[in-house]
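Researcher: Quick test of sequence recovery. Tokens follow.
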């Protein structure tokens, strides 16, 4: 390949990567069904050194669903407490991409205060190596849901909560969830761009080593797991 052609190809690849959507890649499993059952065992399987740890208490809420959301979409509200600091999040998750025109194209966070907003593609894995893609728009702010969401959302905390321990190492997050009813679940995730190359890298570097250790990826989201009161 000539230098000019090679340079053009590199430029095209770089432009494509920049245009790709922000993404979170994740895989979850229940250690009672197989797979690593401690954070240390997960880190060993992924050849990760010890990282920074942080504990959280997480509670989800029932809320009024938006009438103008895309078909199949759902709104999620949760509080997360760590070290005495409360952070709340509102997320709209959809199995189809959000429209480029109309009300949802100019989505606004419903919180009463300025909040950190994020648009992301959520990519999860099945035991067969098949990916499941969802699209999300979310916002997060310090404070309680009761103080941040307008009354019309009728936010009501569920009758259960979950504790979560997270270890972060080399851009990878390992989370151990202690769920309602005594169940446990693990999630390994990382953030990146929604490109074929990054999907393959997560599959080969994270999903496959965990499956090789007996993990059977779950289909439920963390919201579904943590809301099973």
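Model:
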């Amino acid at each position: 390949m000539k230098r000019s052609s090679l340079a053009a190809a590199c430029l095209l690849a770089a432009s494509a990567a920049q245009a790709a959507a922000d993404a979170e890649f994740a895989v979850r499993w229940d250690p009672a069904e197989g797979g690593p059952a401690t954070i240390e065992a997960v880190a060993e399987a992924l050849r990760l050194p010890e990282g920074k740890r942080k504990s959280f208490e997480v509670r989800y809420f029932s809320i009024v669903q938006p009438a103008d959301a895309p078909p199949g979409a759902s709104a999620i509200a949760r509080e997360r407490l760590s070290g005495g600091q409360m952070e709340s999040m509102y997320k709209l998750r959809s199995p189809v991409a959000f429209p480029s025109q109309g009300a949802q194209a100019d989505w606004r966070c419903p919180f009463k205060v300025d909040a950190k907003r994020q648009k992301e593609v959520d990519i999860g894995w099945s035991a067969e190596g098949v990916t499941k893609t969802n699209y999300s728009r979310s916002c997060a702010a310090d404070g309680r849901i009761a103080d941040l969401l307008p009354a019309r959302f009728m936010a009501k905390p569920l009758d259960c909560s979950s504790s979560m321990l997270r270890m972060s190492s080399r851009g990878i997050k390992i989370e151990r969830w202690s769920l309602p009813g005594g169940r446990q679940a693990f999630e390994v995730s990382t953030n990146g761009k929604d490109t074929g190359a990054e999907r393959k890298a997560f599959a080969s570097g994270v999903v496959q080593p965990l499956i090789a250790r007996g993990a059977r990826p779950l289909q439920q989201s963390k919201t579904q797991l943590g809301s099973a009161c």
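The helical segments are 3-19, 39-45, 145-148, 196-212, 222-226.
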